[in-house]
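Retry 2 of 3 after timeout on previous attempt. Resubmitting structure tokens to design endpoint.
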């Protein structure tokens, strides 16, 4: 609670009055008697203070002592009244997902995540179709920086962006990356097969799996999977120089105007104990 003394209230009132007069003085010169250019008369309390200050000249504009007093008066204004905090651009919460996500209907040892418009700018813009996957309850959803989220370019981003990402220090990390379809093909609403072979697709999206560069020799295994009417390309990569991790699993599909890529990454230490978990997460991914 902020408690104002009579002195602080008086200083604050004077500071407000002086501020309005200073603004007016940009177009209307002040008279020796501190003219009220905006037609507003100061209160008796303010007038007494101004009279005292006026004995040493126009203190509202020239005296450092009054400026310090004004600042003291402003200091008692609660910070919540002057700080405009920008609302979060996503619902990412860096707490264990098991505390708020429901159990997976197919395996209660995992929780179920289904992306909604509140999660990402692209989903809010209708530029990506909703997607879903399971993950262990100990994982945490991490915030995606605006520059990576596509927040500034939706709904017509020219380059891929990161939708969501989750991490666990002991097991690894996963992220969903989306790319404009036009970046891979000129055919509207093309399916993943119409874009090209699994090797052609990963050649275009590989750097977004590794976080830096892609070498075709890093591709160990590919497979094709169909779930309902949706076709997916699956990848296993050994990436010793990748920023994401030395081991990467990826799954790609195309829907609407976007190619969606699910990436699960781990370093050597994580991979030994989490390979099966990461594969389960990859298999569960659907758009």
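Retry 2 succeeded. Sequence:
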């Amino acid at each position: 609670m902020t408690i104002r003394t009579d002195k602080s209230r008086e200083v604050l009132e004077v500071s407000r009055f002086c501020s309005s007069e200073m603004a007016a003085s940009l177009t209307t010169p002040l008279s020796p008697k501190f003219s009220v250019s905006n037609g507003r008369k100061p209160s008796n309390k303010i007038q007494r203070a101004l009279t005292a200050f006026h004995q040493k000249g126009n203190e509202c504009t020239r005296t450092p002592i009054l400026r310090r007093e004004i600042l003291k008066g402003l200091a008692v204004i609660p910070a919540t009244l002057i700080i405009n905090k920008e609302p979060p651009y996503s619902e990412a919460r860096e707490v264990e997902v098991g505390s708020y996500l429901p159990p997976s209907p197919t395996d209660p040892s995992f929780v179920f995540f289904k992306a909604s418009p509140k999660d990402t700018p692209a989903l809010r813009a209708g530029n990506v179709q909703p997607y879903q996957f399971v993950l262990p309850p100990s994982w945490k959803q991490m915030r995606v920086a605006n520059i990576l989220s596509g927040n500034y370019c939706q709904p017509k981003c020219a380059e891929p962006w990161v939708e969501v990402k989750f991490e666990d220090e002991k097991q690894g990390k996963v992220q969903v990356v989306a790319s404009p379809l036009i970046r891979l093909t000129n055919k509207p609403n093309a399916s993943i097969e119409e874009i090209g072979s699994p090797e052609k697709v990963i050649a275009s999206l590989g750097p977004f799996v590794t976080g830096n560069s892609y070498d075709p020799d890093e591709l160990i295994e590919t497979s094709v999977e169909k779930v309902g009417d949706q076709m997916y390309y699956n990848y296993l990569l050994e990436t010793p120089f990748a920023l994401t991790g030395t081991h990467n699993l990826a799954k790609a599909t195309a829907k609407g105007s976007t190619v969606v890529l699910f990436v699960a990454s781990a370093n050597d230490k994580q991979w030994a104990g989490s390979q099966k978990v990461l594969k389960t997460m990859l298999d569960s991914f659907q758009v």
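Attempt log closed. The two ends are 50 Å apart (CA to CA).
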